[in-house]
């Protein structure tokens, strides 16, 4: 399965496309440069015309190159057209501002209403999900399960699903068995059981900043304080700050989105993950890892996880299919390491078990090759979208607007010039039926006033581009 | 819908059967008494032979009467064959014994494994559930829902389901709208959100005693203390003790199973419910009502709820379809009264939303007449089973064994002679592949050593009777 993606396997066209992509990213090939003809590719690489065409088609889809009739292929994208990446965040530590509940509910009251404000969300549009195949899976699940799924599931969760999660964990070079895994009602529910297992009211938890408001709200609901850590839009949490937090012994747990942080899109390099786990072990502070978007990577390989480097069971690795298959199924999981008994008890005591039928459906979906082939398409679409968004931001947003450059996931972080307040801008945009997630809801402190999170997990079309253009113009008029 | 059940409506045969049943219960008709002939019934009530036959068939099914060939109908059941009801429980107050986790997991580790130890459970057997109709409902739900249910549901929950719950609440003379209701992942999950909304770690919650171990475990997981209240096997919680608990202001909330308490089967009379709500209002202590089995009544009418008498929003009424349709769907709900905002936030923060597809399936099931016709069959079967269990206990268990006489639900409470320790008995029974729930797991105190809970929510057949007989003989040998 992985071979196809690494380019070292069967798909020669991907290897060729990868080489050209790298040259574009490195600026060796610049916007407008003419690319080798198909015939040249064929003779240089010893491949068929079809393979050469596939490579160029792949790059075209990614918006990296374009065809000009009767002329050939040209580089469309170059670094110059991509907005600058924001700096590392600099939160000031623990603060008592609290999250703006009102603002969050204003932005999300229409959740589930039909997605007419998709830029604000952080889940892929229905059109990107394999709905027909999932429906077929539901039918098969009613046949496979005892009593068609009316009976209680085991407390640990559906065994088929747990086996598949363990099998998939191989892709991130993580050795797990189904005994290590407990299913949950989505990823946030997994984080909830983890936090309830390793913290008590009044404790402090360290998180990246900015960070998904759902995690901030959960912490607040549990009476926890949040220590917000400086985070870089590409490499994730600042390790010095992380160690500082653990060292002073005031942090009872850390909660990191290791791959494609929401809202930044940052991804911790492997060595940082390893170092973070070593620090967690050194200071004996549980590390809860939110890896909900890890399967949606744009690079050649599934990024590793902190769990990959976990020797002692100090990492509680959480995931779900809410960013890839079906948020409404509420299927998530956790591999809680040495905290398994506690987490299992939390699940049992708060909800007995999970929904049998949706777990079985996802389990069988993962068992076949359908998940991998769906993911391949999804990654391809989202990567293309991300590049299109970057282009649109460069084209339409105020000068000096910065934007993160996610290598996976479905959201990016935009930093507008400091004179623009995105809460004001949100009101103006809403009047035109455009929504986004204002920066203020991703922190408990008084910061990120000029920032916003944009969702690129939707179909790119004329409307999407028009919305981004209108949003940019509104911002410029400020 | 309700008319059919009250006997005042279309079904004359039920009215006739009801009159005879009452005479049997009152001991006006005694075991072995001959009943009026079909012809007499026809002329006395002015009904057809078919109607008269239906009435007798109904009573036969309930094990109350029997046919003797060439002779007629005779009373089979009489009060004499029914074991005595245990006395009101007398827990000593708050205790620190804690629940025997080990014993609970020993009894329940096989939950979901295929029900080979059904006497220990408290859910109806798969055979009693409308599986084929639910499967059809799942298919319809994939067609009715946006994106076939892959998308997030609203935080409040599926609207069709909430409307139906509000409509059904009419049966207990409770006026609710769908705006009053929040769906949850089963009833225990509803209780969890309620407790998290109205209590904090260290608070005390008043409950009936004995009480479902799930509720005790949930309270322990939340760091709450439990005040166990004296409870009568027929009329439920002792109101004087209840008032005492509320008066001393040390109780932050109460949690009552108003209808068909698990494990006792007790049902608070309407006037007691009303009085309990008045006390809750007087002392301003939220009353969380677990009404999970309220629809499984054996009498003519759906019993009312505490919520029926709630004027001020102090009652948080919780329910689910886990005892009637599909425990594995994890569909439950709460009408949290004045605590709605808090409870909704808990749901949102801990799990975002519920599973879309199972909620829609249950919503549409409740919308048609299928739920009522299923319930009618289920109640009939369970009532018959309860009577058969009573008979078997009288026939096979040690003399002086007492047993509760539930007027609904699917469990009853057995009190063996005091020299019998049901934890020892459990071990011996297990060796013969018989299981039950030992009394000790229904309290945090050192009591109920001679008690057990039995599940009659299964198909009555030769094996069931043989298991009860074997269990009785093991107990006698003690």
Automatic annotation (TrEMBL), chains A, B:
SUPFAM superfamilies: PLP-dependent transferases, Winged helix' DNA-binding domain. Keywords: Aminotransferase, DNA-binding, Pyridoxal phosphate, Transcription, Transcription regulation, Transferase. Residues 10-78 form the HTH gntR-type domain. The keyword Cytoplasm does not apply. InterPro entries: Aminotransferase_I/II_large, HTH_trans_reg/aminotransferase, PyrdxlP-dep_Trfase, PyrdxlP-dep_Trfase_major, PyrdxlP-dep_Trfase_small, Tscrpt_reg_HTH_GntR, WH-like_DNA-bd_sf, WH_DNA-bd_sf. It holds the Pfam family Aminotran_1_2. In the C-terminal section; belongs to the class-I pyridoxal-phosphate-dependent aminotransferase family. This is Aminotransferase class I/II-fold pyridoxal phosphate-dependent enzyme.
């Amino acid at each position: 399965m992985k071979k196809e993606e690494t380019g070292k396997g069967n798909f020669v066209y991907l290897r060729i496309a990868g080489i050209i992509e790298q040259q574009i990213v490195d600026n060796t090939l610049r916007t407008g440069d003419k690319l080798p003809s198909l015939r040249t590719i064929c003779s240089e690489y010893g491949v068929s015309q079809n393979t050469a065409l596939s490579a160029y088609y792949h790059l075209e889809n990614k918006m990296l190159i374009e065809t000009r009739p009767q002329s050939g292929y040209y580089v469309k994208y170059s670094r110059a057209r991509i907005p600058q990446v924001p700096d590392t965040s600099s939160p000031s530590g623990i603060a008592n501002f609290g999250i703006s509940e009102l603002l969050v509910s204003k932005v999300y009251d229409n959740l589930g209403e039909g997605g007419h404000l998709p830029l604000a969300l952080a889940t892929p549009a229905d059109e990107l999900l394999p709905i027909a195949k999932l429906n077929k899976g539901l039918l098969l699940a009613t046949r496979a399960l005892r009593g068609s799924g009316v009976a209680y599931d085991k407390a640990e969760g559906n065994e088929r699903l747990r086996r598949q999660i363990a099998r998939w964990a191989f892709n991130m070079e993580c050795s797990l068995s189904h005994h290590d895994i407990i299913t949950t009602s989505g990823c946030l529910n997994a984080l909830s059981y983890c936090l309830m297992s390793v913290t008590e009211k009044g404790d402090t938890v360290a998180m990246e900043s900015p960070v998904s408001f759902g995690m901030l709200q959960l912490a607040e609901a549990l009476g926890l304080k949040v220590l917000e850590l400086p985070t870089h839009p590409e490499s994730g949490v600042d390790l010095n700050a992380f160690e500082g937090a653990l060292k002073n012994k005031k942090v009872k747990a850390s909660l990191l989105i290791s791959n494609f942080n929401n809202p930044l899109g940052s991804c911790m390099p492997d060595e940082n993950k390893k170092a973070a786990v070593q620090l967690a072990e050194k200071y004996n502070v549980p590390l809860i890892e939110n890896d909900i978007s890890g399967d949606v990577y744009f690079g050649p390989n599934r990024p590793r996880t902190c769990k990959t480097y976990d020797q002692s069971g100090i990492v509680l690795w959480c995931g779900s299919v809410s960013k890839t298959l079906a948020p409404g199924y509420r299927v998530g999981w956790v591999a809680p390491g040495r905290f398994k008994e506690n987490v299992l008890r939390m699940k049992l005591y708060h909800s007995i078990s999970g929904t049998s039928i949706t777990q079985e459906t996802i389990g069988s979906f993962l068992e076949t090759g359908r998940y991998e082939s769906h993911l391949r398409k999804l990654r391809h679409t989202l990567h293309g979208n991300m590049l299109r968004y970057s282009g649109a931001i460069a084209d339409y947003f105020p000068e000096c607007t910065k934007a993160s450059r996610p290598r996976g996931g479905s959201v990016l972080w935009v930093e507008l010039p400091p004179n623009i307040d995105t809460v004001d801008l949100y009101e103006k945009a809403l009047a035109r039926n455009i929504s986004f997630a204002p920066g203020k809801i991703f922190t408990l402190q008084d910061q990120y006033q000029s920032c916003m999170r944009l969702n690129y997990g939707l179909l790119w079309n004329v409307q999407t581009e028009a919305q981004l253009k209108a949003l940019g113009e509104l911002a410029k008029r400020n």
